[in-house]
């Protein structure tokens, strides 16, 4: 199975603690990723949050809901997660959250693995999600 890695960086006009808390709350992931339309079954642990998310893929008039189990591991200045989607697509990601003058820098890093034939599609979707997430975080924290 092949893997790829890629990152985006977003600077937000907010305190690092506020950004961290926002990203650590599964309810805030609805709409943060344009694919995530529902979050349910949230289970909080000392250093992790587990939940079920529904991703919606649209292909013209057709749509496909992909139910995935998500784990957010909560660390010092970082939130990492992983998902195994149907079809064998695996995504490991991390938000690295650092103070910068005037706000917070968030580095959103992905490592994606997928079987032959799915990697290009999965990578394209993941990159679109990253870009949209940066825009949505900016919108939320500038409001």
Describe this structure in words.
This protein is an alpha+beta fold. The chain has one domain (2-142): START domain (Alpha-D-Glucose-1,6-Bisphosphate, Chain A, domain 4), CATH 3.30.530. It has two helices and seven strands; from the N terminus they run βαββββββα. The protein has helices spanning 16-24, 119-142, and strands spanning 2-12, 36-44, 48-59, 62-75, 78-85, 89-100, 103-114. The protein has a seven-stranded antiparallel beta sheet, covered by helices on one side. Strand 5 (78-85) and strand 6 form a beta hairpin. It is globular.
Quick rundown:
By secondary structure, the chain is of the alpha+beta class. It is 23% helix and 55% strand. A 7-stranded antiparallel sheet has the order 1-7-6-5-4-3-2, covered by helices on one side.
């Amino acid at each position: 199975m092949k893997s790829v890695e890629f990152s985006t960086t977003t600077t937000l006009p907010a305190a690092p603690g506020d950004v961290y808390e926002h990203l650590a709350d599964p309810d805030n992931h609805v709409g943060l990723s344009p694919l995530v339309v529902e979050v349910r079954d949230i289970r909080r642990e000392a250093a992790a949050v587990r939940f079920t998310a529904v991703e919606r893929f649209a292909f013209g008039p057709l749509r496909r809901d992909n139910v995935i189990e998500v784990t957010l591991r909560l660390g010092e200045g970082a939130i990492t997660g992983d998902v195994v989607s149907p079809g064998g697509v695996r995504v490991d990601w991390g938000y690295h959250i650092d103070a910068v003058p005037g706000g917070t820098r968030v580095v959103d890093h992905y490592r994606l693995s997928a079987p032959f034939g799915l990697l290009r599609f999965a990578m394209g979707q993941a990159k679109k999600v990253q870009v949209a997430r940066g825009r949505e975080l900016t919108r939320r924290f500038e409001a």
